[in-house]
Write a structure and sequence with these properties.
This protein is mainly α. The protein is about 75% helix and about 0% strand. It is a multi-pass membrane protein.
Length: about 300
Amino acid sequence: MSTAQLSRTAPRAAGTGRRQAARTGANAARYAAVTLVALLFLLPFYLMVKTAVSPTTDIAGQTFVLWPSDPDWSSFSRVLQDPTFPRALLNSAVMAVVLTGGQIALAAMAGYAMARIPNRAARPLFSATIVVLLIPAATTFLPNFLIVARLGWVDSLRGLIIPGLFSAFNVFLFRQFFLNFPRELEEAGRLDGLGYFGVFRRIVVPNTLAFASALTVLGFVGSWNAFLWPLVVAGGGSGAVTVQVYLSSFLTAQTFDYSGLFAAALLSLVPVLLVFLVLQRWLVRGVAETGMGGG
């Protein structure tokens, strides 16, 4: 290789090396930022575990202890041996599954009817849905409870589930989603002799799973974490005690059992994490398709 060729090759090699170094530095900074954000999200879980295994002196002390020198795991066994805890888990699971499933099914059918079935009542019903969506939930709390009490549903799962089966927010989202659903797919179904319900069940529903899964995860988490309505409907009995109501029993006017509270809270997270792991793929896809994540 001549001297002139060497003089042209050397700057190009140096430029390539600088670009690779810059790319490596950018990737390292990106991974460092992602790791920092992940650690920030994991910080509450660390505090929950640390508090659950810490003695009362460490919890109430003024000095922050990174990790107790003698962790006490008895809080977990104490919660697991409490017969009220599995009952509360079962009530929360039944409420979250039935309530979320009912909300999704009713909202999907109502949204499809408003978006696709020609009917003079569709627009007034959609306007009524918007009005319901704008009404603060606090204003309907007392009337709902009076109806539940009159029907004798206090301290029962019926009182927890049935009043919340209609979700105006989900109906609105499904209606908007079905307005953009490809009509060609529905017309192909009608050519095969399907009616509105057949098209909805065989064509629309299978192509709505990602969107419905995203709403399902959000609805399940919201139902699982509901506190005020289950607290009132439980009425001091054990027939409708949910996990969130059970957790509140660790804090009373006289006692503060923080280790038991955080141990029970950690154990109650397991069902929610399982649901999220199962539906994670559809949740991400649904949020990406609908833009529910905002931004």
